[in-house]
């Protein structure tokens, strides 16, 4: 009996020892977890600075501009500090959290020092007057649309959305004769005015004569299609990129709808060049006819966004 009791006592002591050891290990484990957590919070691995963020704090690499005025954009900031609004793309890559077209006051904009032209703070009137440097296009022709204007002046019809943002008072789906479209310098590829011929291609009344061989005369083309050879000057103005005194095979001569009398192609016999093409003799009726001026075109909601 005593022996059995002694064995039970030994087993009990061993069991208690095991329990105490387990409790000690658990307590140690908790302390270890707490210590590890404290170390992680101190080091803060998850929120550590990236290499780019660390570089931004280096004044030798980046200059910081703090936005203060309404109307600031990355293009305007790039134009002032770097001398070229096209550096907007570089600033957008370095400042991905900013809206390039609308920067909130107080925002910091990091500008590479290697691009800087000035460290002088951008004045308020520069942002306010920035669009004074914009190119102004005045809508004149039937067939014009914001996408067509974007394609002509910026090289891409897809830029119509950017033009819409630059002209917030404009209805992009219905532009009218006399509307002034502001085109920011960062987008502008050409200042050559949009010709009537280009816009007219998007109207139902568009008609053009294709020169079949070198040497055709503008007077002959005008006489055939309009009934009056003197209208060659009006036709020449409607085709500004074509030399009226030296027509070449393949030239497309746009005939303004107001002048057009026939769409019947010129016969080969009449279009054949001569050593010196004589000017047609005016009839008694033609003597009283004066060149018809370009029509007063009424814009009536042209088809929008033609294919590039």
Walk me through the structure.
With 308 residues, the protein is mainly alpha-helical. It folds into three domains: 52-128, no CATH class; 134-197, Membrane-bound Lytic Murein Transglycosylase D, Chain A, CATH 3.10.350; 207-287, no CATH class. It contains twelve helices and six strands. It has helices at 2-43, 51-56, 74-82, 88-94, 124-128, 146-154, 160-166, 196-200, 218-226, 232-238, 268-271, 284-287, and strands at 62-66, 108-112, 135-138, 180-183, 208-210, 252-254. The strands form three sheets. It has a two-stranded antiparallel sheet. Strands 3-4 form a two-stranded antiparallel sheet. Strands 5-6 form a two-stranded antiparallel ribbon. The radius of gyration is 38 Å and the shape is elongated. The model is unreliable at 274-278 and 285-302 (pLDDT under 50).
